[in-house]
Structures are given as structure tokens and as C-alpha cells.
Q: What sequence folds into this?
């Protein structure tokens, strides 16, 4: 069972990263004016999050 502290820390981390870092990275990728690269970057970011969740055994 996952403790409340780890769960709250994870949610806070995702919110902070999601609101501060991800938009800046997506803007950098969007400047290439290639929609396929932007889509791959967005899907890749989702897979990175899922990979970290699976390593934490957070199910």
C-alpha cells in the first residue's frame, strides 16, 4: 500500500512539472512548425510518465 505522503508528493510533482516545464518544452518543439514532431513529443511525454508510474508500482 502506498503511503499518503508519496501519493501527495507525486501529484504535486506532476502538477508542478505539468504547469511549469511541459508547456515550455512543447513551445520549443512547436517552433519547428512540424506537427508530426509535436505529436510525437506529446505522446512521448505521456509514455515517460507511464514508465515512471510502472517503476513505482503505482497501480
A:
Amino acid at each position: 500500500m502506498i503511503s499518503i505522503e508519496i501519493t501527495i508528493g507525486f501529484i504535486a510533482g506532476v502538477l508542478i512539472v505539468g504547469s511549469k516545464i511541459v508547456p515550455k518544452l512543447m513551445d520549443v518543439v512547436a517552433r519547428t512548425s512540424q506537427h508530426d514532431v509535436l505529436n510525437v513529443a506529446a505522446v512521448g511525454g505521456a509514455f515517460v510518465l507511464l514508465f515512471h508510474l510502472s517503476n513505482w508500482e503505482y497501480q
